[in-house]
């Protein structure tokens, strides 16, 4: 869901916040990867930053999908600002799940993104999320 723009001049650029929900199945990951790349390109990120974001979103979503409860959704929230794009990918899980931080996939995520965090909630339902951000090349890390 995109937040409505307050002026006509803003309509040419990407929306500030976008949320996309797809079935939590491997074939749906391509949708998230495509949305991420499109938003970054429309926000005039460099080609390298767009490619890094696309691969990071692919890895994050591909890591979460196998842990998802059957018949649930993979949700990605994309937040754009002047310096970065932040993506939070979330699934409902059957129990308290965590991704291994010593895996090759985690290494890929931390190499491609400027910041990666695993978020989880306990209770019913259990949620597992990965939040990552990729900054525009040429901006300082804060």
TrEMBL record:
The keyword Nucleotide-binding applies. Residues 22-118 form the Histidine kinase/HSP90-like ATPase domain. Keywords: ATP-binding, Nucleotide-binding. The keyword Nucleotide-binding applies. GO terms for molecular function: ATP binding. Pfam families: HATPase_c_2. This is ATP-binding protein. It comes from Actinomycetospora termitidis.
